[in-house]
Amino acid sequence: MSDTRYFLDVSPLRDYAWTGIPTVTARIARYLLNTRPEATVFYYGPEVVLPQFVAMAIDSAPGGYLRAFIEAGTAIAGSLDNALRGDFTSVGIFPNIKPVHRVFDFELVVMHDLSAILLPEMHTPEAAIEHSEAHVRDVATSDLVCCVSEATRQDVLQYLRVPPERVFVSHLGCDVAEETDEFALTSPVSPYVVVLGTIEPRKNLGLVADFIRCRPQICDELAFLFVGRRGWGAQFEDLFADIMRLPQCRERVLFTDYVTEGVKRRLLRHARFAIYPSLFEGFGLPVVECMAQGCPIITSRSSSLVELALDEDFYFDPLSLADFSRAFGLMHSMTMQEERRRQLSHDVTRRASAFSWDAFVERIIEKISERVGSLSATKISMPAQNLRQRRRVVA
Fold this sequence. Notes:
single chain, Rossmann fold, 2 domains, 6-stranded parallel beta sheet, 14 strands
C-alpha cells in the first residue's frame, strides 16, 4: 500500500455539552486537520463526515449541532465503505468505546479508565455491564491501546490481560492561560471556591456536603460554586438540600450546571481555589484544567490523580472527612494571602504546561507509525478484493 490514512470516529461530538471524551475527540480532530488534512477521514457510524463541518463544530465548541447536520445529511460526504476502497493502509482511531471492530487495517483505541470494571457501583447497572463488555471487546480487537495515564495502563494490563507491547501511555493535555490573559467577568459571589465536575456518584460531592454540614460557618468566608453538567444518581439539589436551608449557606452554595469553556476558564481564574474530590479517575482532566488557568486546587490522593504532580499537602484521602478538612484548611489559609495565592497560581500553571494536547496526539501518531511501519509485506500487500471484504462496514 502506498500511504496511510487516518479514520477518526467523531461520534463523541454528537453531545451538545462537551466535557471529557468529546473534548479529547475534538483535540485529536483538530490536530489531524492541522497536520494531515489530506490523509484524514472523519466518520460517524457508516458515513463519512465533511471535514469543514468537523472544523466548524470544533471552532464553535461545544459543537453538538454537528449531529443535526449529520442527521439531515448536510454534513455527509459519502459512505465509509467507499472511503475505505483504495491502495492505502487504513488506520482507525477510536477516542472512546469502539462502535465497530476490525473494519480498518490497523486499529487504536483510547482507554480512559476501567471504572465500570473496578467500581461498578459508581455506574448504573446497565452502564457498568455495557462498558465492561465493551472494554474487553475493544482491547481484543485493537492493535494498540492508548491509556491516558500510567494508572489506567496498569489496570488494562492487570484486568484485561493485554500484552504490554500493545499498551502505552499518552497523557491528555490542556490550554495553559497566557500571563497576559485578562477576563472581564464579575464574580457572582466573592470570594468563592469552585468544585468542578459532572454530578455523579464517582465525583464524591457528598464529601464536600459533609464538610459544609460540619462547618456551616465556612459559608461566611467562602461561597461554593459547583460547575458541571448533570449526570446520574443523587443530584445537586438532593445532596445539598438541607445545607441550602441553613441561614449561613443560603445564596452561598450554588450550582451552575454546564457552562461553556470560556465561562469555565473565567470562573477558574477568579476562584480562590478549586476542589476535586473524585474517588477514581482515568486521568483527571478537570484538575489539569484548573491548573492551566492558574487556579490552585486540592484533590484526591487516588488513582491517576497522583500523576498530576501537585504538592503532596494538597492531596487528601477521598474517604476521610478529617483529611479533606486538613487540605481545605491549609489551602484556605494560604490563598487568603494575596502574594501566596499568586505564587501558587504561578506554580500550578507551570506544572500544567507539562500537559500538551499536541504532545498527546503526537505520541499516538508516533506509536501508530512505528507499528504500521513494522507490518509484514504480506499484510501490507493484501489483495484488494480481500481487503474490501475485511473493510465491509455494517450500518
